[in-house]
Amino acid sequence: MRHNRTPMSDVLDDDSFWVGTPGLVAERMAACKALGFHTFLAELAAPYDDETLERWITEVVPMVDGA
User: Fold this and answer.
1) Percentage of residues in the chain with pLDDT exceeding 70?
2) Where residue 26 falls among pLDDT bands split at 50, 70, 90?
3) In whole angstroms, what is the distance from residue 22 CA to residue 18 CA?
4) How many alpha carbons fall within 13 Å on the CB side of residue 31?
5) Which distant-in-sequence residues (6+ apart) come within 8 Å of 46 by Cβ?
6) How far is CA 24 from the centre of its chain?
7) DSSP reduced 3-state for 37
8) 52: Cα separation from own chain's centroid
9) Which of 51, 55, 56, 63 could form a disulfide with 26 if both were Cys (CB 3.0 to 4.6 A apart)?
10) How many other β-carbons are positioned within 10 Å of the β-carbon of residue 60?
């Protein structure tokens, strides 16, 4: 959020922003997967944050696939 200059206070009450540790994001995704969702799209503001994408791919996705 800081990388894209979005204050957390702007999105704290917005359920469409999934911000947190890889474990927290994976929990939200796993809950949706349990409801039957199979596709997730990451929406990131430009400039794209390579670290966030890398962590989502290498940390979050494996946790969700194992759920």
Assistant:
1) 93
2) very high
3) 10
4) 6
5) 4
6) 8
7) coil
8) 9
9) 63
10) 24
| 3-state secondary structure labels for all residues of 14-28 | CCCCCCCCHHHHHHH
- Which spans in the chain are helix H? 22-34, 50-55, 61-65
What six digits make up the tokens of 26? 């994976």
Give me the residue label for tokens 């796993």. 30
Residues contacting 31, CB < 8 A, separation 6+? none
Q: Which amino acid is at 22?
A: P
Q: What is the pTM of this model?
A: 0.74
The CA-CA-CA angle for residues 65, 62, 21, to 5°, reads: 115
